[in-house]
Each structure stands twice: as C-alpha cells, then as structure tokens.
Amino acid sequence: MDTLAVKASVAQAEGDLPRASVLLASLHPPPDDSNVLYAQVYQAILLRRPAQIIPQLKEILAKPDPAWGYATGEMRFWLGWAQEVANDHAGARESWEQARRELEPFLKEQPENFNLLYDLALTNMALGDKIAAFALAEQAMAVIPVEKDAFDGPAPIEILARVAARMGESDRAIAALQKILSIPYEGPLGGGQCPLTPALLRLDPMFDPLRNDPRFQKLAGSPITK
C-alpha cells in the first residue's frame, strides 16, 4: 500500500483531516488499488463532503473487472455510504441493494472470509436488516475470536459496534467500543487499517446515533453535540 495513504490514515485516526487531505490529494490510484481509494472515500465521508468522490466511484463501478470478485460489492457499499452522507438516500439504498446482491453469492463459497462478512454486515445494517447485520457481525467474531487472534480479532467487534450504533442498540455499541478502544488492532475500514480512535468516533457519521449519549462522549474524549 502507498506509504502516503498509510500516513493519511494515521492522520485521520488522529483527527488531523487537513493533513490527511494534503497527503491524499496527490494520489491517483488505479481502480484495483482499493486501499488507497477507500482512504480517499473515507476522508470525504469524515469531512462530510463526498460529492466529488461519488462520480469517481460510479465510473469505476460502471465497468467492474470480474477478477475483483466480491470487491465490486464492497466498493458499491462505499458508494452507498458516500451517497447517504451526501443526502442522496434513494441512491444510497439502490447502491446497497445492488451491493448485497453482488456480495451474497460469494459468502456461500467463502463462509469464513471475515472481510466479506464485514461487508455484508455493514450492507445489511445500511439497509435496515437488523437481524442479518447482527448475525453476520457475530459470524465474523466467531471466525476470528479476539481470544485467539489479538491483531485481527478486534476488527469484527468494531463492525458489531457500528451495527449496534446504527440499529439503535446503544448499550451493545458502547460495550463493544469500550472493549476495542484500548487495544491495538488492524481496523476493517478506511483503507489504511487504522483502528478506531476517539478522534474517529468524533468524526465518523456512522456513530451519529450515539452523539448525545454521555458514555459515547466520554469515549470520544470530549462532549459532542450533533
């Protein structure tokens, strides 16, 4: 992965979005370099200004390479998230529905692919399918339990926290966040694999439902009002 993208991811995790923007502006990744692309998309989402990145994602997804496999559906999840942040809720739902159709066939072939499970958990979460989203997050936790894999194991707990936050299960979300914020791990989102940090909690729109919870404000390091 491009070292500038890694540095940008670290800047995002530190809450230094201006520095991350400078680092990412010079990068022009090919369509198959998803890590750099997702770092750029995540930056746009954290800034809550995704309008410029959406056409780029649509252009790539207009002619996806069959060799990408489930990565096409993964990219379409990101498109939907960007569209949602841009207040294009109808477009977001359409993207997520297509993403689910593209991702689900791969699960039959790769039931222990935790990255695929993350994608499907978040996609079902975005579509409001609470039962499926939690089941997929829990399946990922069973594939790589934190007790057996200290490096990758916390990542599905982050996915669970995101699902719980979005689905209105604040107690469950807070418990998951409390578990992972104090340990190092490879994060499942954003391209740079940085873990969740208090700064990202303050910035990431996926945690907006928790903004007014004092427990979340404490975890995020400062009072937050939506």
Nutshell version of this structure?
By secondary structure, the chain is mostly helical. The chain has helices at residues 3-13, 17-25, 34-47, 53-62, 71-85, 89-109, 114-126, 130-143, 154-166, 170-180, 198-203, 214-220.
Features:
0% strand; mainly alpha
Can you tell me about this structure?
With 226 residues, this protein is an all-alpha fold. The chain has a single domain, classed as Serine Threonine Protein Phosphatase 5, Tetratricopeptide repeat (Alpha Horseshoe), CATH 1.25.40.10. Helices cover 64% and strands 0% of the residues. The protein contains 12 helices and no strands. The protein has helices spanning 3-13, 17-25, 34-47, 53-62, 71-85, 89-109, 114-126, 130-143, 154-166, 170-180, 198-203, 214-220. The protein is globular.
CATH homologous group name: Tetratricopeptide repeat domain
Strand content: under 5%
Q: Please tally the helical runs, counting DSSP H or I stretches of 4 or more residues.
A: 12
Report Rg.
16 Å
Low-pLDDT runs: none
Helix-strand blueprint:
Layout: H1 3-13, H2 17-25, H3 34-47, H4 53-62, H5 71-85, H6 89-109, H7 114-126, H8 130-143, H9 154-166, H10 170-180, H11 198-203, H12 214-220
Helix pairs in contact: 1-2, 1-3, 2-3, 3-5, 4-5, 5-6, 5-7, 6-7, 7-8, 7-9, 8-9, 9-10
